[in-house]
Amino acid sequence: MKDTQNKTVVVGMSGGVDSSVAALLLKKQGYRVIGVTMQIWQAEEACQQEENGGCCGLSAVEDARRVAYALDIPYYVMNFRREFQEKVIDYFTEEYLKGRTPNPCIACNRYVKWEALLARSLQIGADYIATGHYARVARLENGRYTLRCSAADGKDQTYALYNLTQEQLARTLMPVGLYPKAEIRRMALEAGLPVANKPDSQEICFVPDGDYAGFIERSMGKQLPTGNFVTAKGEILGKHKGIVHYTIGQRKGLGLSMGHPVFVSGIRPESNEVVIGESEDLFKTVLYAHKLNLMSRERLEGPLRVMAKIRYNHRGAPCTVEPLEEDRIRCVFDTPQRAITPGQAVVLYEGEYVLGGAVITGSEG
């Protein structure tokens, strides 16, 4: 058990029920709790359009402020606009232009919610930062920190946190990971927190309408060029609206009359082509990834049997992972996996614990 006496923790408060209860639990445990909302939105108009449940608009600030008042803890808004623009929005745009499908929440967690917030928190004398994520921080017998899956069935957010460093994990508290969602809402109600029944945020916070392509084109101030839908052999099937409109496995919104369902099976940014294939073309056995971040082990000495998740809502599948040169890995799945998507993360698990993860670069087989 951590010594909570005279320890200060900065809780990243999004205005939602999870981070609010995280602050409640930590205060009950004896920590000196400071609530902080990260100001990351880029324009007043954008946050005024935000619906209830968003995590980075004006209503989030007001909700978090009301919770802090109810808990009788200090509350501040810290400006992270520059970090969010550079590390999340610019990255998001650049990845789509390269024909990949990024996960901006992973980048935000690593570089804004942890790297930037932790640095600022240490500057003001805090010992830890905390969030309302459904995950648990664990220190293993080998001395390394890792993430353990949430105790709640069906509610685990370790996938989006795989990229945290050892230094960040050592300074992180995640009290919500011990409870199911229903229990979190019950605790919020009992404590009289004004966000107890607030709905969860679903969409990417800076694209509340879900129109990623429109957001990218507005950010760039221009419409991206159209190009050709092609078969894997190069046969032209029609015109696409621009590669940022598509992702691997997509079926809807293609505007192709093929007489049967077809899917995006590849994106070729160098030739501005979107490859169209059949359902079976989406299943691959071998995955390649780079930018490996290890948690539970200092180095990967393969081959190693693990469970791997290839997207946030993937249930996970058994595979053999082996290290390649530098920070690259190869995963060979026991059974073919559908729509392995460059730009998404593959996160590796040994039982309940995160071994590490990497960014998918391609697949075969």
Automatic annotation (TrEMBL):
SUPFAM superfamilies: Adenine nucleotide alpha hydrolases-like
Catalytic activity: S-sulfanyl-L-cysteinyl-[protein] + uridine(34) in tRNA + AH2 + ATP = 2-thiouridine(34) in tRNA + L-cysteinyl-[protein] + A + AMP + diphosphate + H(+)
CDD domains reported for this sequence: MnmA_TRMU-like
Keywords assigned by UniProt, alphabetized: ATP-binding, Cytoplasm, Disulfide bond, Nucleotide-binding, RNA-binding, Transferase, tRNA processing, tRNA-binding
Pfam families from the UniProt entry: tRNA_Me_trans (PF03054), tRNA_Me_trans_C (PF20258), tRNA_Me_trans_M (PF20259)
A cellular component term, taken from the record's GO annotations: cytoplasm
Site (Interaction with tRNA): 133, 344
Residue ranges of domain tRNA-specific 2-thiouridylase MnmA-like C-terminal in the record: 286-360
GO biological process, one term: tRNA wobble position uridine thiolation
Main location as per UniProt: cytoplasm
Disulphide bridges, residue numbers: 108-205
GO MF, one annotated term: tRNA binding
EC number annotated for this UniProt entry: 2.8.1.13
Localization annotation: Cytoplasm
Positions of the catalytic residues: 108, 205
tRNA-specific 2-thiouridylase MnmA-like central domain mapped to chain residues: 215-278
Region spans: Interaction with tRNA: 155-157, 311-312
Binding-site residues, ATP: 12-19, 38, 132
Job description of the protein: Catalyzes the 2-thiolation of uridine at the wobble position (U34) of tRNA, leading to the formation of s(2)U34.
Homology family: Belongs to the MnmA/TRMU family.
Protein name, entry field: tRNA-specific 2-thiouridylase MnmA
Native source organism of the sequence: Candidatus Limivivens intestinipullorum
